[in-house]
Amino acid sequence: MKNQRKLKYRSLLSVLDMVVAVAALRLCEAGKKVLMLEMGLNWGKSGIPYSSLLKPGKSAAWLKNKTIAPFMNIFPLTPFTGALDRLDFKNINVWVGRGVGGGSIVNGGMAVTPKKAYFKEVFPELDAEKFYNFYFPLANKELKANVIDEQFLNDCPIL
């Protein structure tokens, strides 16, 4: 082909989210060439506005006939390569971002810290105390995350 060029990379990262972006940064800082692939649009440059929960538009879902946002699966859609996708498995549904930025474009600005008992059950080999006393607070500080009061979640009429 006429305009074809060969690219040489030692690292290929896909399904970008904040964790993979940090890995890409560290590899680049170490002098490695990294190719990052995204599935979906660059929403910041697309000119297509993000959808709201109550008035979903083109960006609401990835090739779906209705909205798929948690708790709000009620609006019909014309299938389009939107920003939010959901992978349905037997025992779990996983929501993912489709576009430049991956999950960070659809996470609602949330940095969820799991309940300690659940964390210990799922990751018994990890030092939970270190995660809750050091890593989670550090991540929240760096992300400038806020905390939602549990009572707000209990009282929220939409949830």
Short structural summary:
With 159 residues, this protein is α+β, with helices and mostly antiparallel strands. Helices cover 28% and strands 10% of the residues.
Can you walk through the features of this model?
The chain is 28% helix and 10% strand. The chain has 159 residues and is an alpha+beta fold. It has a domain of 51 residues. The protein has a two-stranded parallel sheet with strand order 1-2. A two-stranded antiparallel ribbon has the order 3-4. A hairpin with a 4-residue loop joins strand 3 and strand 4. InterPro entries: FAD/NAD-bd_sf.
Features:
single chain, 159 residues, alpha+beta, 4 strands, FAD/NAD-bd_sf
Secondary structure elements and their pairing?
Elements: E1 11-13, H1 18-29, E2 34-36, H2 43-46, E3 84-88, E4 93-97, H3 116-122, H4 128-143, H5 150-155
Parallel strand pairs: 1-2
Antiparallel strand pairs: 3-4
Q: Indicate the radius of gyration in whole angstroms.
A: 19 Å
Number of strands: 4
Output the number of helix runs: 5
State the separation between the terminal residues, measured CA to CA.
54 Å
